[in-house]
From TrEMBL:
GO cellular component terms listed in the entry, alphabetical order: cytoplasm
Listed GO MF terms: ATP binding; metal ion binding; transferase activity
Record organism: Qipengyuania citrea
Domain of life: Bacteria
Official protein name in the record: tRNA threonylcarbamoyladenosine biosynthesis protein TsaE
Keyword presence, Lipid metabolism: no
Gene that specifies this protein: tsaE
The family this protein is said to belong to: Belongs to the TsaE family.
Keywords: ATP-binding, Cytoplasm, Magnesium, Metal-binding, Nucleotide-binding, Transferase, tRNA processing
Principal subcellular localization: cytoplasm
Gene3D superfamilies per record: P-loop containing nucleotide triphosphate hydrolases
Amino acid sequence: MKIALPDLAAMEAFGQQISAKLAPGDVVALSGTLGTGKTTLARAIIAALGHEGEVPSPTYTIIETYDGLPVPLVHADFYRLEDPAEAAELGLDDYREGAALLAEWPDHAGGFAHEPNCLAIALEKVGEGREAVVTPGTSWQSRWP
């Protein structure tokens, strides 16, 4: 399914739509080239869940956690990983326990599309806006519009 995201307001509304369906154990796998809006969408999801304040990009820290939300979140940016095994070395499985994962550059961590609780979103530039190609895993199919 393709969703047009012509501006920031549309990206924020899309983030709200995702956050309303998000549950512990879910993965939102955000892929796309540099500058397509992966971090912007992750921030919209985090804000829609009620986080107030700054949401730093985890480009350098790799993992940021948000425990005080209705759905605890792990926001990870795997861009800097050189081998998928590094995700395990970071303790990713421990972070994911009881939390949802927002994963930027999921392919650098070995990917998550094989997981039934994965909502894969590929962002692409379209003119001045973006387009999201959404592929819901089996557990998302009943929740996704």
